[in-house]
Amino acid sequence: MVSTLFIIAGGLGAAFLLGLLREEWRGFAYGVTLAALAFMSWVAGSWLWAFVFDGAVGVDVFTAGHNPPFAINLRMGLPEAVLVLLVNAMGLMVGVYLKGTLMRLGRRAMAVLLVAVLALCGIILTRDIFNLFVFIELTAISTAGLVLLSADARALGAGFKYLVISQIISILLLVGIIFAYHATGTLNIDGMAEASVALMKGGTLAFFLILMALIVELKPFPANGWALDIYESAHPAFSALFSAAFSAAMLFAVDKVLLIGGEPWPKIATGVGIVTFVGSNLLALSQTNDRRLLGYSSVAQVGLVLTVIGQRAVLGEHYLFVVGGILLAHSVAKAGLFWVSGLVVERQLSAWAVLRQNPFLVFAFATFMALLIGLPPFPGFYAKWELVHALVSEGRLALVVFILFGALLEVGYLFRWFGYIIKREASVESAMSKPVAFLPRKLVVIGVGVVSAWGLGYIWGALSDFANVLQALPVLFALSFLALEGLPAKLKNTLAIVGLVAFFAISYENYNQLQLIFGAIILIGGAVILLASYETHGKRIGFYPSAMLMYAGLAMLIVAEDSFSFFVAWEILTVGSYFLILRGKFSEPHALSYIIFSLGGAFAILAGFALAAGGAPRIPLEALAQVPATLAPWVFILLAIGFMTKTAAIGLHIWLPGAHAEAETDVSPMVSGILLKAGLFGLMVLLLNMGKTQFYGVELTYVLLWIGALSALLGNLMAIFQEDAKRLLAYSSIGQMGYAVFGLAMMNHLGWLMALMFVINHYVYKSMLFLSVGGIAKRTGTRDMYRMGGLIALMPLSFIAVLIGIIAVSGVPPLSGFGGRWIFYNAIMTADARLPMILIFLSGPVAFLYLFRLIHTIFLGQLKDEHRRLKEAPFWIVVPQMIYVVFLLGFAVFPGLALRRVDAFLNPYFPNGGLNWEGLTISSDFGYWSPVSIMITIGVIFATLLAWLVYLNHNAQKVKQFNIVFAAERPYRPETTHFAWNFFAPYRKALGFMVQPFVTQFWDGLTGSLHHTAQFTRKLYTGNGQTYAFHLLAFVVVVYLILVGGLV
Amino acid sequence: MIKKFVALLLLAGLGLMFVGLLLGFTPDQVLNTTASYYADHSVEDTGAANIVTAVIVTYRGLDTLGEVTVLFLTATIVSLILTQPRPSGTPIIGVAEKKALSSGELLQTGTRLLVPLVLLFGVYVFVNGHLTPGGGFQGGAILASALLLLLLSDPTKRFNHRLISRVESISGILYVVIGVLGLVLAGGFLDNRILPLGAFGTLFSAGAIPVIYTLIGLKVGAEFSSMMVTLSESRDR
Amino acid sequence: MSTVMFVMSLLLACAMIASAYVALRGQSLSMAVLAAGAVSLFASVMFVLLAAPDVAMTEAAIGSGLTTFLFFFVMGRVKGGKDD
Amino acid sequence: MVYVALITGFLLILMGLYGALTNRNILRMTVAFSIASTGTHLVLVAVGYIPGRTAPILDGAVTAADASLRIIDPVPQALVLTAIVIGLGVTALMLTYAYKLYETKRTLDISKYTDLKW
């Protein structure tokens, strides 16, 4: 093994060598620089290799031939090796990225870069506190030099501010070090730890000063204005180094120094860390400058790591796994994002839309974003899971809440940004600037970042105690579409369909009845919807990986046996569906609110599972039943909230209408017909295991009952006032899910049967309606119903689909919807919740109102002039609709096909009140239902009525298109004169108060106040270096006072 | 006014900590472990009479290497900043500046006489660093002050940057090489025992310490000089 | 001996504080720089008293010597060196 | 005497920081910081001092044998040496920055360099 010292000696030697070179030999100097960085990386890498594969143990490297504490020693162990490799590799990448700048500025700049990298290595390796100080000063000075690599003249001011800060830091540090030395008689960190400096007189304060100096280097909120100025103005490649490597090294220094500490120090680290994490993420919300935003985010992440460092005792043996996961994820992601920012010319976030010119960059951004947030399969995900579990088991709930809140803020601004990239128009100037697509060197560096990101994901998966997400077949299948992006969409579509069906074929044998229903809907149902995707042309980049990711998550969800795999699947399907929803033309804000609600819900689920686990890393889902009674209601509430964000229960529903309505034609049925079922599945799992849970004497299922009923009523009410057909369908989904939740919450056999019936029915008719409406919208170019009319003759197949669909939805005989209702009313009779029951009954007729409009306004009435030449909806969109029609008819006649199995499945859980299946007749305690005879009866009545109508039609008088007399003036808004506009105005008068957007106002108010806080708080950062110095001192003094005051 | 008040308030807070440190402080009566080890062993370990030198060059040699690097870095950055082309559009300053006064005959002659002496003194200080107070940093500073004298006596004088940077680089590289030799030949990086310790108290003793201090002296002198020269010449660029 | 040194150190301390005051409140910048140099110089005498000749030499050469010159070099370039 | 040096050192640090916090002139801030670091050096050396002992240099008066009873702690001195040199480096850098900053805006008032904020 090469001695660790060669990292420092090599870097220094090369830096000094650069001074010998002629100014003109820049290429050679550049070569020397890269070679030195590569050499240093290699040394670090060889150590890492030895630790991992040869089982080497950490070594202490003595200098000067004497033992510590008399001479300085370095330590090389696994964490050191990882960090040193990170720093060096980052340095190498930055060197490659900066080629142009370095060549322009010459060998001096290269020497500064080299020294910066080796100083960081020194910070990581040294075990001597004063040596640490020297390396920190080296780092500070080289930072002040590297800031000037930027072409931005403002960097000069930022560099000076940093120097001011580092002067104060070094004063604090020196005073602290000398008094710590005085108290312990050694400068060796381990020696100090042994002498337990905190117990000695004067030592506590000395240690406090040291710790504060180091923590201030970590840019704690709010004493971090200087760092943000650096991030904003420095060269992005330097910012990458600053964010990734500098922070990593300083964090490690804090970790080392905390060894000395005593009782209060870890708490201080955690306190400072969490304030920084939440505060900086909050401020990031109101940023429009990309690099400053990244700066805030960096600072926040470092705060998170600091929080975790403070919780070392709680994490035990998982400490390195957790802290390393978060830190490495942050480093790679942040470096990657800064590198990408170097390709974008303008600085406002929306200018990043220019990345769309190169799909690879979009993928890179998505990767880094997911890495940063800690979505599966990236390390942060595993780390977050472990962290939350450990903290919850120790009862540090407030900390968990803050961490998850901060993470949600981060989700908010990062996904908002991603939305800009996908949806905003790239401004003219940036479009005309250097084409992003062609900067191979920088792209390679970014590529290395992307590869490391996925590599880290794989490694963390392998290191975790759980199954590696990157080895799950469905995920791999979904990701393989990334490699196939170059193929035409039709080919990929075939592959996707084959994949879904094949996966169903190989797994259905292992499904139980419940899983079978969901599996069939997800996989087979998904395949049917995908038929509609044959309609698209070109490559449809981004669609298949997203869609397949969602299906992968869904497929994994239903077979999940323990809390971890359930949560993995949940997050995967959430992310996949977000990308899918975002594809819609105007879906940017809706996709954002979808992901925020969903991940917020996911965090609730995470917290719920952690609470239920009680210290175990994960629990089988059945073990939810054994949660102690004191915790059970909380677990129930958290999980239920999480699942109901997906079913869009009232109060958590505001994301749904936009997300479903604005999605692409074939995406709407996926996210409505299939995705919503994930929430129901979660609720089923929850209720099966924790069914009867009381919270302060209130039966929680009773609350669910109410939520279901209200969702049903209000969802339907809101649906009737929509003009947009897809929005109407989306609101109706809220209502439909309300029924299902209601059914489940009844906690009896029939209720569940009805809910499962809904699962199937809702998939079929909502997919069908979304497809037909989507097809119509494609042809007419609008989704507003009053702009349509009379399409019955032009689009008969769509008409049939809609007709069948609304019959099924409304639950009138003869279609399966009626079966659902029938079971439903039976079920209600068995329950004793009268009031919500009335609501449910009321919402039935309301559904008629909006469904009626679909037929009436779209297909009947007068044909618009501009629609005279319309054709039937595209073939591939009609095909699945016809499949659904056939299925609905079949299901109406033979509901037993599916329901019998479900019924049997439910028996062990709800033995009483099942149905009797005799031949084709089904009977309950309250009556019987014979689908076939109903079908025949209805058929006869329908035929009779039709004949009667045809007969009457004979006398009808044709009205010409222009047989309408206008007054002389043209109305301001022409649609207001249309008979179908605001069709239910009278009802609005009566019921409007119920559809006031109270919920929307609530959430808007919440986000608004967050933004206002951010706007207000960031005024702290006046940009004046002196003010920043004030902040710093105030920070130190306040922490000191808190400490003295004994608040910690 | 508020600013001053707040500053006073904050410094009062900081002062509170300092008072705490003071109250907790009792001067040592005997040397602590580290210091008494140095007192007892530095002669046999390093052969240096000046224990501070032994600590600086050998025991805490890595610090010193870092320290030299700090100067190297500063000199590099200073010249990097000052040789960078001005951002276009910024006015050239110093135009209105008076032509530097030519210094008097006396000063020039005096300087000519003094500079070799000063240089010699500087060299004396660093080669004797292991015996007497002083060493590479002090000697280097003295070397640089010789240059400063030249600069003061004739502000228009031009210095050979290449020479300065060559001295700096070569001594830096040699320093690192000696460090690595210590790793290979003796007990560890920067171990001074790659050369015989020699007779205690003589010039050629204490192993590599005089060599290292000489290199440091040259390097530090070159770095200080480079900083001053770049700063003094900056206006002309 | 000890009393003499104590008195000396007290005097030095007063000199340092006074110079520092001048350095911070003095009207002209050159005055301030010189006063700061004086603080360093007094400090180096103090170091001799504290039995630290190495430090004394360094402080005298670097702290009060070179630093002061560096200040003057830069002040020569910068017209706004007056209080503004 | 140790206490005199310590208190003076701390006072210098506080005075220096006060100057750095209240003077808007960049050069004056730099001067103030150099005073503060002189104060730091004083503190460091004072901590290592033991009354009645001599400098850690072995010569005729102090021999290797009785060194540990006669000399003061060499470590703080070594640290201060390093700190002084580093302090010079930082000061030089601040001065260069000051010069460069002046070149861009022709003022040394730090409150004028707030293009970056919020």
UniProtKB/TrEMBL annotation, chain A:
User: Transmembrane region positions?
Assistant: 6-21, 28-52, 72-97, 109-126, 132-150, 162-183, 195-216, 237-262, 268-286, 293-313, 319-340, 360-378, 398-422, 443-460, 466-484, 491-508, 514-534, 541-558, 594-614, 634-655, 667-688, 700-721, 789-813, 833-852, 873-898, 928-952, 1028-1047
Coiled-coil region: none
- Give the way it sits in the membrane: Multi-pass membrane protein
Write out the annotated subcellular location: Cell membrane; Membrane
Task: Write the record's keywords in alphabetical order, separated by commas.
Answer: Cell membrane, Membrane, Transmembrane, Transmembrane helix
Question: Main subcellular localization, coarse class?
Answer: membrane
Does the keyword field hold tRNA processing?
no
Q: Which GO terms describe its cellular component?
A: plasma membrane
* One Pfam family of this chain: Proton_antipo_M
Any single GO molecular-function term of the entry would be: NADH dehydrogenase (ubiquinone) activity
Keyword Chaperone set for record: no
According to its UniProt entry, one GO biological process term is: ATP synthesis coupled electron transport
Q: Which residues form the NADH:quinone oxidoreductase/Mrp antiporter transmembrane domain?
A: 128-409, 560-839
Q: Which InterPro entries match?
A: CPA3_Na-H_Antiporter_D (IPR050586), NADH_UbQ_OxRdtase (IPR003918), ND/Mrp_TM (IPR001750)
The Swiss-Prot or TrEMBL record describes its family as follows:
Belongs to the CPA3 antiporters (TC 2.A.63) subunit D family.
Name of the molecule in the record: NADH dehydrogenase
Per the UniProt record, the source organism is Magnetovibrio blakemorei
TrEMBL record, chain B:
The signal peptide, as residue positions, is none
Keywords carried by this UniProt record: Cell membrane, Membrane, Transmembrane, Transmembrane helix
| Regions crossing the membrane | 68-85, 106-127, 133-152, 172-190, 196-218
* Any single GO CC term annotated in Swiss-Prot or TrEMBL for this entry: plasma membrane
- How the protein sits in the membrane? Multi-pass membrane protein
Q: One Pfam family of this protein, by short name?
A: MnhB
Q: What is the protein name given in its UniProt record?
A: Sodium:proton antiporter
Q: Which organism is it from?
A: Magnetovibrio blakemorei
Q: What is the lineage of its organism?
A: Bacteria, Pseudomonadati, Pseudomonadota, Alphaproteobacteria, Rhodospirillales
From TrEMBL, chain D:
Report keywords, A-Z. Cell membrane, Membrane, Transmembrane, Transmembrane helix
Instruction: Report how it sits in the membrane.
Output: Multi-pass membrane protein
Give the UniProt entry's GO cellular component terms.
plasma membrane
One Pfam family, please name it. Oxidored_q2
| InterPro entries hit by this protein | CPA3_antiporter_subunitC, NUOK/Mnh_C1-like
UniProt-annotated location(s): Cell membrane
Stretches that traverse the bilayer:
29-50, 78-99
Family (UniProt): Belongs to the CPA3 antiporters (TC 2.A.63) subunit C family.
Q: What is this protein called?
A: Cation:proton antiporter
Q: Which organism is it from?
A: Magnetovibrio blakemorei
Organism phylogeny: Bacteria, Pseudomonadati, Pseudomonadota, Alphaproteobacteria, Rhodospirillales
